[in-house]
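ZP: hey, is the adenosine-5'-triphosphate complex queued? I don't see it on the tracker
AM: it wasn't, my bad. submitting now with these inputs:
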Amino acid sequence: MSKIVLKNLAKHFGAVKAVDNLTLEIPAGSFTTLLGPSGCGKTTTLRMIAGLETPTDGEIWIGDQCVFSRREGRFVPAGDRGLGLVFQSYALWPHLTVFENIAFGLKIAKVKKAEVQKRVEETAEVLQIGELLKRYPNELSGGQQQRVAIARVLVMRPQVLLLDEPLSNLDAKLRMDMRAELKRLHSEMGSTVVYVTHDQLEALTLSTHVAIMDRGTLQQWSPPMVVYNQPANVFTADFIGNPRINLVQGVFKKEQERFVFAAPGLELPLDVSEDLVRLVGRPVTLGLRAEDFTLSTTPAEGFLAAEVESVLPAGSEWFVRVRLGELALMTSTTYDPQVDSGGTLWIQVKPEKMKFFDEDEKLIIGIGSTYGRKEVA
Ligand code: ATP
């Protein structure tokens, strides 16, 4: 297992800063996802780690080997970095059987025949394609072809596995199965995995660590549930989560001895004080995920009456878009709210779930039992 260290890594294409000053330490044995919208620099980062792209600046370390340093003029070619690569298009050899496709790299590396046989069979077993070894690629489904592509890389037993959107050509159900498969494989093989995706669900479900990028820069580097619960800034909060987080612009006020967050249509008393003193009078953004509300079909103390705009059943939960004065909010509940558009629901914000961002859009306070009163800025 090797850790990967990126130090002040940059790649500029003319005026485009595809990756800018990226510093990241990817722990050995982790499953790290590079996540972000199209064009944020994920693939360029992966290609630099792989040795397929020469960085404009910075350093790359794989294990204790420096594979790129601008300052020292060092560049270790892709083939000498000990990596396995799987890309979106699997490009199997069409004229070779599944066995021959998987064995290809071992043969080039002049591994003995008996050893090739053993390793191909073992790897095929792990990926549950042992039955398919005699078939040709055009006799396989998309998902089976993808497994062969992954087997072809795993059979080389790479210390580091780089995957660029390897599941994006598969249908939704198969993608979910393959995610589970990849996760199992990772825990069995223990390699360090760097995985590129723009699919936040994929990142949340697969990763031990997520690096969220936007326009070439790193926005947050955390375990997936930390990204979800304590997004470092408004960009991350908005990018992660489906449906999108509700973002409410407002201001902190002090009224007599209590603090309130005030926005058009919403006034929320806050029962913590000392953390908020410095913020009084300042504009802030409140982030609330759909599940951060309690819904009631009858009036209750501390609940606000909201007009129901639409009800969206989603099997295990219901999404309910409500209106509070000028504010439209997406809420959710795990039971049937038994209400239609135009009806009324009573909603309450779960105080421990409130996430506040400052004028620079950075997370300043996560209030309540989930995070304590700790400042996370
Ligand atoms: P996607 O999810 O769409 O693949 P990405 O996050 O992987 O996007 P990159 O492919 O790394 O993004 O591209 C980052 C930026 O660099 C984009 O603005 C892209 O247009 C630009 N870029 C990438 N490769 C080149 C190139 N060879 N020449 C010029 N610009 C490039």
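AM: back. Confidence is low (pLDDT under 50) at residues 367-377.
ZP: great, adding it to the tracker
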